[in-house]
Amino acid sequence: MRILISNDDGYLAPGINALADALAPIAEIVVVAPDSNRSGASNSLSLDRPLSVQRASNGFYFVNGTPSDCVHVALTALLDERPDLVVSGINNGPNMGDDTLYSGTVAAATEGYLFGIPAIAFSQGAYGWEHIDAAARHARDIVQRYYQTLPRPYLLNVNIPNRPYDQLNTVVATRLGRRHHSEPVIKARDPRGKEIYWIGPPGACKDAGDGTDFHACAQGQTSITPLQIDLTHTTQLNALARALA
Amino acid sequence: MRILISNDDGYLAPGINALADALAPIAEIVVVAPDSNRSGASNSLSLDRPLSVQRASNGFYFVNGTPSDCVHVALTALLDERPDLVVSGINNGPNMGDDTLYSGTVAAATEGYLFGIPAIAFSQGAYGWEHIDAAARHARDIVQRYYQTLPRPYLLNVNIPNRPYDQLNTVVATRLGRRHHSEPVIKARDPRGKEIYWIGPPGACKDAGDGTDFHACAQGQTSITPLQIDLTHTTQLNALARALA
Amino acid sequence: MRILISNDDGYLAPGINALADALAPIAEIVVVAPDSNRSGASNSLSLDRPLSVQRASNGFYFVNGTPSDCVHVALTALLDERPDLVVSGINNGPNMGDDTLYSGTVAAATEGYLFGIPAIAFSQGAYGWEHIDAAARHARDIVQRYYQTLPRPYLLNVNIPNRPYDQLNTVVATRLGRRHHSEPVIKARDPRGKEIYWIGPPGACKDAGDGTDFHACAQGQTSITPLQIDLTHTTQLNALARALA
Amino acid sequence: MRILISNDDGYLAPGINALADALAPIAEIVVVAPDSNRSGASNSLSLDRPLSVQRASNGFYFVNGTPSDCVHVALTALLDERPDLVVSGINNGPNMGDDTLYSGTVAAATEGYLFGIPAIAFSQGAYGWEHIDAAARHARDIVQRYYQTLPRPYLLNVNIPNRPYDQLNTVVATRLGRRHHSEPVIKARDPRGKEIYWIGPPGACKDAGDGTDFHACAQGQTSITPLQIDLTHTTQLNALARALA
């Protein structure tokens, strides 16, 4: 089994190192990840400049680009053989609800899925890397248990609570919850007196009810949401057609 | 009526200038757009550095950030009053099918939609700005005709053929088509001999059948796709739940 | 007479616009400047990515690069004929003493000088663009009066007090003063709690004595310092040779 | 003895690793270097965004900034005690003649010198890292032999031939040579058809005569040039004063 691993926190992040360590015993792994933190990169691709690829002493490839760039370059130029699975993460902090739109972690997995390869994005439910090794071992369990059996292709968004390994025992299928819109930007001044704006934190949960990823994580459960990438609002389509007629 | 206008080609692009000119007679407009071309930016947000905002001599605001950054800063810091509509574009070239995942034009509109505001992304069906003024006038027609009547909130993805205004007479409701995966990266060497990789062109159409945006544009029709942003693969959810049980 | 104009504040800055307006009546001007503020760019060149050039509605060219990139591209690709003079600025704030090492304004002029073309860097003695039109008119006077007569090639660093035009009546030849080393970086935290560091202000004057650019500006005089670019410490050379022998 | 080490090729480059390994036995070393290759950065400082600092598993600090940023942050925020020496490099390729104006390697040393600390910039005479360990051992010899005895403060620019250690036996004091101006930019098109420009190679030697760094390196000798940072063209100063009078 061949697994391509990427992330959005950069190739040096504890999350991708823990994930690579956990998967190395069960698969031939290749890591291709951004050279630095690209959180919030979404599916962005670098179209106006070329990318370069370097290899670190531990064998990881790193790219001066986005998560999507990394998987794109890996699949179309670096890898001799098509991987059986693309995994992304483990992200520092949750990617739930509307966050998935902005997430570079989800985007890296999405890029694999667009090439027809099963793909899984892994995130920890809370920031700070606590219990990252437990999360990585748990991620390996998920790969081993479900890699073969799920209908293909699939794109899974997995959020793992920050807990010791022996407390990671419930895995539930969820839908994405919803957040309220983001908090306002934070105004400040730089040391030269110029007004600057920092993007603020995400909004509070709006739909965190039973069945959502937010709800599962609040219960200490691992949440797995199956994703698709067709943004068509199917249920509005007929109404729109009538309005245009 | 107050309209916030953004794009991903940058505040100097012909498309946003044509759109602003076309909408100014029917609304109070504010333009907040990236300082330079950010095509392919997707929904990316700048989380690791602050943004700054400047104002050009024509009154447009420009931001050293992504399309999502621009709408985010506009809605939470720059505008005194909430706009009634967010429009984005007119993009240089189509945003159809899977392109919508990568598109900064769609992302700018999406950011407005996430704040609960009706939003429309406009793109031209072909590159090169030919008939951009016709497209802008047609965009205004769409705003005037449908702004009030569609069920809210809505997020529309509009692709307009590059044609003279009097040939822009058919508007159809579509679903997003599908592309084959992207072409491989293009390998090259920079003048110092270093290997570099350019992201290549999008893949050819896979689903361009009747009812898709691709099909509409091929027929010379304006395509309007209603979008939603919940990536949950609802039809896979039960199967996944059974597999996890 | 053909003059190439650049700066480091970006092609939209009031300083370069005032300078272009002032010089247009006496020369054929071409403006090639950075797309955004590149203060502190020094002589940096963009070696790891290609540059692109756009043209604004007022005819100015702008480049996604540094001041040195701009002059380099102008002289080796954009201009059909070699200019007779390269001018840079007018910078927002002073470039005196050790500042000249960091200054993109001085760097743009230096790039012209390296190509064998007379070059002048203009800065205002204080921030805020007050009396920028007076400074531009005064800059034109300097070009007209001294362009022909100075021994060539020359590289001049000019700092002009922020004063009304009729009070800009003394021009003195100066040497660069010296500053104490810079103030410490300013530590802060970004909204996500990450420790960040802002480069702080330059140090106070150490040598601002008679004959320096600092002294001239303090007296309300325009300072002109002739620059050279050979960093060899000639007076240490013999001592070093003896030490190595 | 405490030594601060930086470079412009990034903290992962073979040159800085070889230099750190060579100096560790004779001094307490701290490495603070850019997160990625910043060749051509000159003395540029990042004024419009904050810097962040991370620490690699080998103890090296890396900064999302320029060489000058790195030394600046190290000296004013990271280090508890002032270092006795700042060294920079070993650069991949030469920094001779006019190259010193553009060099980030020289700039990192210059930043130390501006803070009153002796500083040495090391470069290899040819690209490709051949004999980098020999160069590093030779660099240590230079530090050990001359650190104490040279008049202070000093800023030395050292270029070491790519040779085995036992052939690195001649060290000469040199002045900077001169190059002809740079080769033209290289025009190309990106895959989307947009015209782009790559900065081309430096010009050929103009003054590579006896006594220059170019000449020393051509003879297989290690070149040490003492640098100063006052750009005043002292010999033109009187002529300018007369012209202005």
UniProtKB/TrEMBL annotation, chains A, B, C, D:
The keyword rRNA-binding does not apply. It comes from the Bacteria. Its EC number is 3.1.3.5. Pfam families: SurE. It is found in: Cytoplasm. Binds 1 divalent metal cation per subunit. It is an enzyme of class 3 (hydrolase). Belongs to the SurE nucleotidase family. Nucleotidase that shows phosphatase activity on nucleoside 5'-monophosphates. This is 5'-nucleotidase SurE.
